[in-house]
Amino acid sequence: MATKPVRLDQSLVDAAAESGHRNRRSTTQQIDFWLRVGRAVSAGQTSERERIMGAVNGTVHFEELSDPEREIAHAEIDARIETAASGADFAARLAAEGVPTVTLGPDGALIRQEPDGSTSVIGDADAA
């Protein structure tokens, strides 16, 4: 089987390692398993899948789904949010609008970043 390296979010790799351990699979085997299951679910255009995607897209009410369908719909929405958020640079967007942002520094301190790029510490992780 030919392979190709890909970049994955570290939290996904960690979850795959944990799940793989429980299921006696390597991290790579677990990710491959998840991909194959996801592909099969995504490819199947059953009436259940159509209802799930309808709920995800807002054309079907969640109340019309069974509990397992609702769980899948929520997972689909979560995955879409994570994908969208991982590629978004909210600080840059807000800076372009002249809005300062606050982030958490590596030491736990709150850092205020002005739209001009200047920063200042506004909180200290040890002060709490």
Notes on the structure:
With 128 residues, this protein is mainly alpha-helical. 53% of the residues lie in helices and 9% in strands. The chain has five helices and three strands. It has helices spanning 10-22, 27-43, 47-57, 67-86, 90-96, and strands at 101-104, 110-113, 119-121. A three-stranded antiparallel β-sheet has the order 1-2-3. α1 crosses α2 (27-43). The longest helix is centred in the middle third of the chain and has 20 residues, at 67-86. The protein is extended and about 50 Å long.
Q: What attributes characterize this protein structure?
A:
single chain, 128 residues, mainly alpha, three-stranded antiparallel sheet, 5 helices, 3 strands
Largest sheet strand order: 1-2-3
Strand content: 5-15%
Total strands = 3
Distance between the termini: 54 Å
Integer-rounded radius of gyration: 21 Å
Backbone structural class? mainly alpha
Low-confidence stretches: none
SS element count, helices:
5
Rounded mean pLDDT is: 87
Largest sheet: 3 strands, antiparallel
Oligomeric state of the chains present here: single chain
User: What fraction, in percent, of the residue positions are helical?
Assistant: 40-55%
Q: What is the general shape? A: extended
Order of helices and strands: HHHHHEEE
